[in-house]
Write a structure and sequence with these properties.
The complex is a heterodimer of chains A (77) and B (209). Chain A has 77 residues and is mainly alpha-helical. Helix content of chain A is 78%, strand content 0%. Classes of the chains: A mainly alpha (77), B mainly alpha (209).
Chain lengths: 77, 209
């Protein structure tokens, strides 16, 4: 497997959906290609950073408006 | 309904043990139970809507509509998925509707699965083991928001659904009316682009002796 092909399979690799023979091929490539190792590692970290990031606290004014809107709607029979 | 605005909602809606109970109670008319669900998910739903629309007004609108509709159609919720996932679907549709209104000329094309473009990353450097720890939470959020903002809306939406909201490829495809290969292709490009943009913030800082 060459770097270009690995990059194309990168998402599938990180999502754990590669066919066994492709996976083996890819991991063999990683053994001797530091650039690809770095790309795999930093892409994985990219996903993790976004996945783990906590959402910002909601602006109290927005929450207030949301609750008012819900209150009105919930009042209706 | 009581104003529970200062009751800090949960940051991460991990499969809550009592989500199903809250939903059942809300269905039976317990508005307090529904309020608890709202408080639990309002920050995430707002962030989702912001990520898609990139417009605060639209995001707030979309979020409100999502919660309102989820309440109104509670009897239609089958319970075969998590309530939160169902809520996300509603919110995504509301957000996309508003995004399309603002950008009527933007056409979503099913992109070629195997494009000829060069995907090879340019900035290949080692990062800190836990890159996010270098920044305070507010600073980190600013960084993540700004890089996500730079993404093409089609890539951004897929990334947000797959990697932030953790929907499956199939769920994402269905929700966005895309083929599975299209979702995968956009996700790959989104991930690579974001990685490239984050490089300058997360790369290892050379130590000076």
């Amino acid at each position: 497997m060459r770097c270009k092909q690995l990059i194309r399979e990168l998402s599938n690799y990180l999502d754990g959906v590669l066919e066994p023979d492709v996976l083996a091929d890819l991991e063999r490539h990683l053994e001797h290609c530091e650039d690809c190792r770095l790309v795999v590692d930093t892409t994985r970290k990219t996903i993790q950073v976004f996945c783990n990031a906590e959402p910002a606290p909601l602006d109290p004014a927005i929450r207030e408006r949301l609750h008012k809107a819900l209150e009105q709607r919930l009042k209706r029979p | 309904m009581s104003q529970t605005g200062f009751n800090p909602p949960q940051a991460v809606p991990a499969p809550q043990d009592n989500e199903a109970q809250l939903v059942d109670a809300a269905r039976a008319g317990d508005t307090g139970a529904f309020t608890e669900l709202v408080n639990r998910y309002d920050r995430r739903i707002f962030r989702l809507a912001m990520n898609i629309t990139q417009n605060r007004e639209d995001a707030e609108d979309a979020m409100q509509e999502a919660f309102l509709k989820s309440y109104q159609h509670l009897d239609e919720f089958q319970g075969d998925s998590r309530f939160y996932t169902w809520l996300v679907r509603i919110a995504v549709n509301e957000a996309l509707m508003r995004l399309r209104k603002r950008r009527p000329n933007h056409v979503s094309l099913d992109e070629p699965v195997e494009g000829d473009e060069d995907l090879m990353p340019r900035e290949i450097e080692d990062w800190d083991p836990s890159p996010e720890q270098r920044y305070a939470q507010t600073e980190l959020r600013k960084i993540l928001d700004s890089v996500i903002d730079e993404l093409h809306p089609d890539f951004r939406t897929v990334f947000v659904l797959r990697d932030v909201e953790e929907l499956s490829t199939e769920e994402t495809a269905e929700l966005l009316g895309l083929s599975v290969p299209a979702v995968k292709s956009r996700l790959l490009r989104a991930r690579l682009k974001l990685r490239g943009k984050l490089n300058r913030y997360f790369r290892k800082v050379a130590e000076t002796t």
